[in-house]
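Q: What structure does this chain adopt?
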Amino acid sequence: MQVSRITQVDGAKASTAARLQLDGWTLSALVLAAFAALPIVAILATAPEGGFEAIAHLAQTVLGRYVANTLALMVMAGGFALVVGTGCAWLVSAARFPGRRLFAWALVLPLAVPAYIAAYLYADLLDFTGPVQSGLRSTFDLSVGEYWFPEMRSLTGGAFVLGIVLYPYVYLLARSAFAAQSLSQFRAARSLGATPARAFWRVALPAARPAIAGGLALVLMEVLADFGVAQYFAIPTFSTGIFRSWLAMGDKQAALKLAAFMLIFVIALIAWEARTRTGRTASKDGLAAREDTPLVELSPMGKALASIACALPLLLGFVVPAVHLAMMSMSDTAIAAAGDLWDYASGSLWLGLATALVCLVAALVLGFAKARSQSRIARGAIRVSTLGYAMPGALLAVGLLAPLGALDIGLTRGLRDTFGYTGGLVLTGTSLVLVYALAVRFLTVAYNSVDGGLAAIPPSLDAAARSLGAGPARVLAKIYVPLLSPSLAAAAALVFIDTVRELPATLILRPFNLETLATRTYRLASDERLVEASIPALILLAAGLLPVLLLTRSAKR
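A:
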């Protein structure tokens, strides 16, 4: 009896030691976690500088406005995305109506449209001099002041634009949750006299709530990170405030303090999103198992309304921006302005490839650390390394510039004194810091793809190769790389596209000689030269179709 207890204690100690051990993979994961955590640590370390007086000054001037507008934008855009995404997901999952199969995958397409490009296009369409208001005045012979039209460049306009292109996050997760639900539970509620609406509110919606909340959390993260829409519509938010404080006013301390307040929102959203991952269950007799059996019977009028309800988000979120952009890009002005297209397309190409390469290497390290090491330290390092997806680009930019700027000044001075170096700043004066920030932001995208690929490879293949005398490098080259090639290709493509479309971090961190498709589009649109910006904007929209199609394909599985 006593021997058995001693054995159990020794086994528990050995297991704990194994979970806390530091091997090569764990150390590598810790290094990556340190790099990923640097901007957060820098913001938290530098934010208290200036003491309470600096914080009080912000509170008396701009902080309240930034908090109020950011929260209002999150509530309105999130609410819009929640209603549209959940409603459309329920219709395509539970009912049968004309166009349902088309809408089931096409409702994801608005995710391909960058929010800032949608803002430029809707402002052009709906402004006083735009085609919509001009057509109304011409058709009904109206003069200025004789009619009311909603102001597009406003808080509500920004919420509409963000909501209409981000609702697919909610739609995708809600549709998957509804498809996995038990048919028997819903039909039991109906047999007890519940109407379809009551059964939806009492049975289907509560069961799908964790997934819907997860989609909403992703929407709110994107709204918090937005810079292009808020800047173009003149909405003072945290992102625009950080950008204005750092670049326009040169007040780095104010920018870092705003980033610290923004970090509070980020941490809350990360905690919420992580909490929503629990409680998601699937049923063998779910809606997906009865594809041809409608759960809710619709009348002819109901079928028509369902088709309209699903068509409107698709039209407003994708068709209208894409068609308007395509029409503008065919004009002589747009074609003439695209003469130097390669100059900024090459900048996007180099930046995307460099970031994708860094993310692939880091994702492989983290993936192997998870597969090879049972250490809790390794798993904690992986969580820290993959937090970047929730970090707004503006926050990452100022969080990196603060410590690396000081390091860069000392490094450049040392090179100048020692080797007679005559160039500019070595780190922040080049694209290195920008690639660093983008890699931190999009590492999660690459890691999820690589981790999924590694999970499908049996560990016995590795063990068999090792038993035949193959070293780690040979095992990696001959076994893992060929088997992981689809996952690596998908990860590289997704990171490349996200990098090309990223705006705030690129604007803040890019060197003076680097222009990308995103910054070119932003600069031309800010100067109200939207026609000239149409071709680079159309390229960005087309590039966004690839991850959307991959999402649609994975959702079908």
